[in-house]
Write a structure and sequence with these properties.
Elements: H1 2-11, E1 18-21, H2 25-36, E2 41-44, H3 52-56, E3 60-61, H4 65-70, E4 74-77, H5 82-89, H6 93-96, E5 100-103, H7 109-121, E6 125-131, E7 144-149, H8 151-161, E8 166-169, H9 176-203, H10 209-237, H11 247-263, H12 269-286, H13 294-298
Parallel strand pairs: 1-2, 1-4, 2-3, 4-5, 5-6, 7-8
Antiparallel strand pairs: 6-7
Length: about 300
């Protein structure tokens, strides 16, 4: 069986051949990381000129998708979208049979599950992936790469996937990686915007962004991190003891932020949105509960 042989190869340290399909900025970074670690790497892109730099570094450039997928047991796909993925792989599905496809094309959980069904129908071991970094971060062991789908495929190629970053398997549901990706991006954008609002606020009093950010990083990596850990347990239990700071206290506190921003001409859309959400939570009966109870409004389960 291929999987058994590949597992043995991984355990003995052999750098397995890899194919990367799609050479946008991210696909190019993925292929470069495998080349840098000595993996025989085949690449294919609809526009072959994008493969030139990788070819100069030792990549084999496939002329067709058929040649690309038959070159390696491990195939990484990173194309524009799932429609493009079907366009490339549907005609060569028979050649993919018995191989492992790792799909890091951005998409929704439902699209990931659909492609898992496609892979199962063609006897292809399937992992859906989410790249939690930008192209310059590929190859950094601190950067997370999320995978979901075939446990056996992940175990077989985990050490090879580690070339790209820290590989984390989220379970057999192929949609899990995409779901985490969306949730984590939402967290990132919210944090970015909150930081930028704070930076604009202190900047109005001529505080440098770099000076503020030293304090902000300490706040985020200490107290805020601890709050998240504590609140996670409350969310799982569905109980929100207001023994630190209640929602009603937070409503009073955010008024100070809104006033300070207004005095300095800083846009208040974000804190006003946050206050409105807190007020809905309080109106739903959670005014004396911890801030974690806001999730009841976000879930739509508080009747607000």
């Amino acid at each position: 069986m291929r999987a058994s042989n590949d597992t043995d190869a991984v355990n003995t340290g052999r750098r397995v051949p890899v194919t990367v399909i799609g050479l946008g900025n991210m696909g190019t970074a993925l292929a470069a990381a495998f080349l840098d670690r000595g993996h025989p790497t085949t690449v294919w892109n609809r526009s072959p000129e994008k493969a030139k730099a990788l070819a100069e570094r030792g990549a084999r450039v496939a002329e067709t998708p058929t040649e690309a997928v038959t070159a390696s047991e491990l195939v990484i796909a990173c194309v524009l979208d799932h429609d493009a993925l079907h366009t490339v792989l549907d005609p060569v599905a028979g050649r993919l049979a018995g191989r492992t496809l790792v799909n890091v094309t951005s998409g929704s959980p439902d699209q990931a599950r659909e492609f898992k069904g496609w892979a199962d129908a063609h006897t292809v071991a399937y992992l859906d992936g989410a790249v939690m970094t930008t192209p310059p971060g590929v190859g950094n062991p601190d950067m997370m790469f999320l995978y979901s789908g075939s446990e056996q495929a992940f175990q077989t190629y985990e050490d090879n996937l580690r070339v790209l970053g820290d590989p984390l398997h989220l379970g057999a549901d192929a949609g899990a990686a995409s779901l985490y990706d969306a949730a984590l991006l939402g967290l990132m954008w919210s944090a970015f915007t909150g930081w930028l609002h704070g930076t604009a606020l202190v900047g109005a009093d001529e505080v440098a962004a770099t000076d503020f950010t030293v304090i902000a990083n300490r706040w985020l990596g200490g107290a805020v991190r601890d709050f998240l850990t504590r609140y996670a347990g409350q969310v799982d239990e569905g109980r929100y003891p207001g023994d630190d700071a209640t929602v009603d206290v937070q409503i009073t506190a955010i008024d100070h932020l809104i006033h300070a921003a207004a005095e300095r001409g800083v846009d208040n859309a974000l804190p006003q949105l946050l206050k409105a959400t807190m007020e809905r939570t309080s109106a739903a009966g959670h005014g004396g509960d911890s801030y974690a109870s806001v999730i009841e409004v976000l879930r739509g389960s508080a009747g607000a």
